[in-house]
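Person: Please work through this fold.
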Amino acid sequence: MPITDEMQRVIMEGGTEVDIQKMAYQEGMVDLRRAGLLKVMSGITSLEEVLANTND
């Protein structure tokens, strides 16, 4: 994911991990678990596989 001007601002202003994560989600980032769940819904993989290989 490229760093946008807004993300750079949050980082440079000393944003916390939560601030950076919130900005990333606002900019369309999809975390690994969510991407896996989308693949489960598409029939590409199993829920067990996603849960075994991702964190909450």
